Amino acid sequence: VLVASTDSVGTKMMVAARMGRWDTVGQDLVNHCVNDILVQGARPIFFLDYVATTHIDPEQIAALVGGVAAACRAVGCALLGGETAELPGVYQPGEVDLVGAIVGVVERARVLDGARIRPGDAVLGLPSTGLHTNGFSLARRVLADLDWAAPLPELGTSPDEALLAVHRSYLKPVQRLWAAGVDVRGLAHITGGGFVDNLPRILPAGVGAVIRRGTWPEPPIFGLIQRVGQVADDEMFHVFNMGLGMLVVVPPEQVSLAQATLPGEVYVVGGIVAGQAGVTISR
Amino acid sequence: VLVASTDSVGTKMMVAARMGRWDTVGQDLVNHCVNDILVQGARPIFFLDYVATTHIDPEQIAALVGGVAAACRAVGCALLGGETAELPGVYQPGEVDLVGAIVGVVERARVLDGARIRPGDAVLGLPSTGLHTNGFSLARRVLADLDWAAPLPELGTSPDEALLAVHRSYLKPVQRLWAAGVDVRGLAHITGGGFVDNLPRILPAGVGAVIRRGTWPEPPIFGLIQRVGQVADDEMFHVFNMGLGMLVVVPPEQVSLAQATLPGEVYVVGGIVAGQAGVTISR
Q1: Most buried among A29, A238, A261, A271, by the most CB within 10 A?
Q2: Alpha carbons A134 and A236: distance in angstroms, whole number
Q3: Rounded to 5 degrees, what are φ and ψ at B47?
Q4: pLDDT at residue A216 in the model
Q5: Per residue in A114-127, pLDDT tens?
Q6: How many CB pairs under 8 A join A and B?
């Protein structure tokens, strides 16, 4: 079965534009798309990219496409090609949009849709590197008055570095779980909408999930955004991944196998419960 | 063999924006992509679309995606889905970009690359509906001061209608040629760069093509642009399709079969010649 998805880097491009740094967003794009089809059980086979801007700067395009190519190589996906468009008048001066389309493949019997998820299953979390590619409109508004280039002790780096941290691909860790024989019953890529919107998509009728905050480390960029912007917890969990880029639902007896397969990379962050729909964040 | 391509509607979107008419550009996008893979011998299997703007207007998005869906249905291609992005700050107010990715399939033995093209072959032309999706930056600049909504006798319609004429899909006529047993040796989709840039891509080493102007009707929108903008012939042929959206190279003895298969739709516009590279437009 072929599986396909398309997406863009969104307003993270404006952070790249503000910093004049174009080598990372191509990786964000590819990894985002890889994760989007991974949740259906698919591995990527090829990728196409589209870059549009007001005025083509060859060095900038080379950096962007170089990031796309590097990320494709890293996940074993062919970069089939793409298109570069110069659209004066459509884009704001200096701004760029980067769009990707990915095609992957999965055996029909192995298509993942969460149908086998049962009450009592464990929800595991795989750590994110930061915002990945979601929540940048809020983050940029909240942090607008900060000096993004100056290191902040609470971040351990500068805001710009923390914001541009590359969206992780979860292909390899998930493939290691499969190879170890872990019965992965569902995968949720945590993008726009956070746990609250993304996890329910794979839950069968009549079951919900409880996520226990405090069971995984939250990258300090989220604390900074929440404090500076006085953002409520609910909104934080609706907009950001809060430190977990991929949730993995497994039977409870396989938690230790998953942890042994990915040492130090797997957090047990919650469980599947009967009789309530949706996701509850407990504190 | 899977074949894929990605493209956007380019600055034709600005014509749609100026007219507030969003139902045709989705068809342009799909048909452009269909033709791009058709030249490799492929038929489309699925399509993904991406729409980005500053502020999502549900009616506008419905019209855009409705055009995409209608064109996909017309060519028997599944619209697998897509993404809608609201990117304030990246786009100019009111402007929209519409990007598509297509995946098609062709049997390995039937992949078309022009390798069998020989001196003496005929170049057939299939008519375009107008600019299709190329040359809009020049057209918009040249025609900026005209009233686009007022009918012009020389066009038989208003400039806006002529400019927004839908990019034709050549899938069905080309499939009819194949079904009739016409030995199609090469197909060139005439997009940005005109005959001069697009036809040589499929010509083997050591052969060129001569195109005889006057052997096909040129839609009046090209004459209007050339006259108002005082554009040289060479530039016209470099920027626009000049009335032929697809060139088909066939052996000379099959010209009459092609004409009988697509009555009134096929022009014999030139031929393949030995000993000179590139395309010569003779007058």
Answers
A1: A29
A2: 11
A3: -140, 145
A4: 97
A5: 999 999 999 999 99
A6: 113
Instruction: Give every strand in the sheet of A96-105, ordered side by side.
Output: A2-8, A96-105, A43-53, A78-86
In this predicted model, what pLDDT tens digit does every residue of A219-243 receive, in sequence order?
999 999 999 999 999 999 999 999 9
Is the ipTM beyond the 0.95 threshold?
no
**Sheet containing strand A207-212, strands side by side:** A186-189, A244-250, A122-127, A267-274, A207-212, A279-282
DSSP bridge pairs for A83: A50
- Report the first-to-last Cα separation within chain A, whole angstroms: 41
Q: Whole-number mean pLDDT of chain A? A: 94
Taking CA atoms, A92 is separated from A17, B90, B98, B99, B209, in Å, by 11, 6, 16, 18, 41
B119: phi then psi, degrees, rounded to nearest 5: -55, 140
Q: Would you say residue A184 has pLDDT above 90? A: yes
Q: Output the pLDDT for position B283.
A: 79
Strands (E), B9-111: 43-53, 78-86, 96-105
- Residue B8 near residue A83 (C-beta atoms within 8 A): yes
Please indicate whether, in this complex, the C-beta atoms of B97 and A103 are within 8 angstroms of each other: no
Minimal C-alpha gap between A67 and chain B (Å): 18
> Looking at beta carbons, which residues of chain B come within 8 Å of A7?
50, 83
Q: What is the pTM of this model?
A: 0.86
Query: Can you tell me the distance from the alpha carbon of A266 to that of B64, in angstroms, rounded to the nearest whole number?
Result: 42
Among A6, A14, A18, A134, the strongest candidate for a mutation testing the B interface, having the largest count of B CBs within 10 A, is A6
The sign of the CA dihedral A270, A271, A277, A282 is: negative
**Residue where the block lists tokens 């007896």:** A253
Give pLDDT, residue A276.
79
* E-assigned strand segments in chain A: 2-8, 43-53, 78-86, 96-105, 122-127, 186-189, 207-212, 244-250, 267-274, 279-282
Side chain identity, residue B156: G
Residues of B with CB under 8 A from a CB of A: 2, 4-8, 10-11, 13-14, 45-46, 48-50, 52, 80-83, 85, 87-92, 95-97, 99, 101, 103, 137
Cα A2 from chain centroid? 21
Kindly determine whether residue A92 and residue B91, on different chains, have CB atoms separated by under 8 Å. yes
Q: Give me the count of residues in chain B.
A: 283
Q: Which residues of chain B have pLDDT under 70?
A: none
According to the model, what pLDDT value does residue A247 have? 98
Strands (E), A121-205: 122-127, 186-189
- Nearest-angstrom CA–CA distance, B185 and A239: 54
Q: Which is nearest to B99 in space by CA: A15, A84, A67?
A: A84
